[in-house]
Amino acid sequence: MKKIAIIEDQDAIRENYIDMLESQGYVVKGYADRISAQDDLLANLPDLAIIDIGLGDEIDGGFMLCQALRAKSQTLPIIFLTARDNEIDTVSGLRMGADDYLTKDISLAHLAARISAIFRRQLALNTPQQQAQLIERGELVIDPERMQVTWQGVTIDLTVTEYWLVHALAIRPGHVKQRNDLMNEAKIYVDDSTITSHIKRIRKKFLKIDDAFDHIDTVYGMGYRWEAK
């Protein structure tokens, strides 16, 4: 069974997450502060760490813990689950190496789905690749089995949320996806500015590989579309 660590300083919230995940068949251990979690997890890494950012008196304790865990393991799945939904925190968390950044208004069912998706992707990446049904859009290739995206033959390091957003846009090039459509397909429920932040980060990741990349169009007042050029 997969072992999950929950680092959340509010007892009721932490226990709620633990109950839900245990009902899904996971082995779950909760921590209320960074220091106890860090000492324990560095000695015995879990299969997934779910971390709040503000932990007790440490306003950025979750960031500190993420850095320590990422220094120990480059492959440990890490999710930030926090009430802080501003762009600076989101970008900071993802740059530290988190696999996803979710806000606490996500439902328990969608949190469970996101965790399942991360484990599914991890399993696929560790399994010898077989012939898969790839989605090809010019220089873009999407591998749904491995939840992986490549551009010009180079793998784009996307979070699970970013993968689903790219998938939603590219599956029907030229068709406008409203923000609600993107949220439904990515299984996230956030405000418009957060979707905008995700799209900005996705563009930047493609631009690192191809400085002429311009395939994600903003359709003002409506949403976004993948433009096949």
TrEMBL record:
Pfam families with a match to the protein in the record: Response_reg, Trans_reg_C
Residue ranges of the annotated DNA-binding region, renumbered to this chain: 132-228
CDD domains: trans_reg_C
InterPro entries: CheY-like_superfamily, OmpR/PhoB-type_DNA-bd, Response_regulator, Sig_transdc_resp-reg_C-effctor, Sig_transdc_resp-reg_receiver, WalR-like, WH-like_DNA-bd_sf
Keyword list, A-Z: DNA-binding, Phosphoprotein, Transcription, Transcription regulation, Two-component regulatory system
Response regulatory domain location: 3-119
4-aspartylphosphate PTM positions: D52
Domain OmpR/PhoB-type as annotated: residue spans: 132-228
UniProt xrefs under SUPFAM superfamilies: C-terminal effector domain of the bipartite response regulators, CheY-like
Residues making up the signal peptide according to the UniProt record: none
SMART domains in the record: REC, Trans_reg_C
The protein, known as: Proteobacterial dedicated sortase system response regulator
This protein's encoding gene: pdsR
